[in-house]
Amino acid sequence: MSRWNLAWLLILPTVLASGLMLRFASASLPKDKDYERMRLIADVLAEVEKNYVEPLDDARKQKLVEDMLNGGLRRLDEHTMYFNEDVLSEFQTQSQGEFGGVGFIMALDNGNAKHIVIKTPLPGGPAYDAGLQAGDQIVRIEDKSTEGMKTEEARKLILGKPGTKVNITVLRRGAAQPEAITLTRALIEQPVVSGLARDPNDPTKWDYIADPVNKIALIRVSGFSGKTTKELKVALDQCEAAGAKAYILDLRGNPGGLLNEAIDVADLFLAGGGIVTTKVRDSTRSWTAKDDGKPYEKATERPMAVLADQGSASASEIVAAALQENGRAVVIGQRTYGKGSVQKVFDLPEGGAVKITTEVWLTPAGKHFHRVQTAKETDSWGVEPDPGMKVDLTEEQMKNYVIMLDQLNVIPGKPGVAPKVPPLPPRPDWTLPANYKDPVAEKGMEYLRKKLSGMTRRVVSSTGVAA
């Protein structure tokens, strides 16, 4: 193959990703700046193909081009990047919050890293309905052994078009022989809203009331997918029905997601005021809360706290800042991640896509909390906790919090489906100390108890004066 043919085969994805249209003419291409840049990359690739110490197969050539793309794009910022088709599919799954599969979360077994176990079945999914349980070991998927297999490879084998079938072989913990099961794939929705603890009468449901005496509700939101607002409305309905008088919105570890979902979530708790402003080059666009008689009006009046940490990013920060700056809630915990930019995904003609930072966002007060790659801890970035509301955690406390969440998300199996052997936790070596309490959530409840107490005193005082 000639040097130029090879170069153009290798450079084609780069040309497509850049959005440039190079027109072939009977003579030579015009030597404008864009063409010169493309020619430089093509020349480099051709020299690598010709002179590198060992031959490159097609997979390595493709990886080289993708790495060159992402190496250059990430010099713009850390969130602008090229997606090949596999990465794009995963990104879309996370953004939409749904996928075609059998409905369980899996991980490598702590006791034997060569084996894959089910961490928890997802309620309503085929695996859950078939009686699969937390701790069951996946031995085979179709005709492939899972010994030594990475979870991502196993996931690709299991995912597929809803309505199609997949055969898996499962070894229940303590069982002598594996069991072959055929599951029909379905559209799986991975919930992003949870509560304090699972309902003991129905582990697919949540108990949100963290303080039964003061009626303080705790709602956890783990991401902003296309169904976050819908799930949150269901949780708010349940909280209001239970007599909630105050809310804790837990956004810790929430990496963000869709901008429109962040706006809608903030709007649920705001009767008015700004939510966010996005700025793109020379234009801006602002969103404000709508006082439109929505059915969650009471939720806009209850005392409220937002829990955040260094893992709270992007859409989480939009919600936290909007509620904080409108005086609707205090922020408790640690400073947030500091991602004040918005990305859009542009599909490419030959497959894959490029995710580009197109906007930055500003809080209602006009602050830009984005943390640049060269930022120092002493610089201003992220959403800071309110005065007196910062909670520093020890390494042990952070570990216990992760363990607590891990255990909280586990559903042993479907109620009424008798297990073949007693179910065991997927991570039996992870244990919480007796009477464990979440320091950040405790701080939130302490604040809200005082807030509710102050409201009660004012009501009593007002009644006394009126009498």
UniProtKB/TrEMBL annotation:
InterPro entries: ClpP/crotonase-like_dom_sf, PDZ, PDZ_6, PDZ_sf, Peptidase_S41A, Tail-specific_protease. Residues 88-158 form the PDZ domain. Keywords: Hydrolase, Protease, Serine protease. GO terms for cellular component: outer membrane-bounded periplasmic space. Pfam families: PDZ_6, Peptidase_S41. GO terms for molecular function: endopeptidase activity; serine-type peptidase activity. Transmembrane segments: none annotated. PROSITE patterns: PDZ. The keyword Protease applies. One of its GO terms (biological process) is proteolysis. Belongs to the peptidase S41A family. PANTHER family: CARBOXY-TERMINAL PROCESSING PROTEASE CTPA (PTHR32060:SF30), TAIL-SPECIFIC PROTEASE (PTHR32060). NCBIfam families: prc. This is S41 family peptidase. It comes from Limnoglobus roseus.
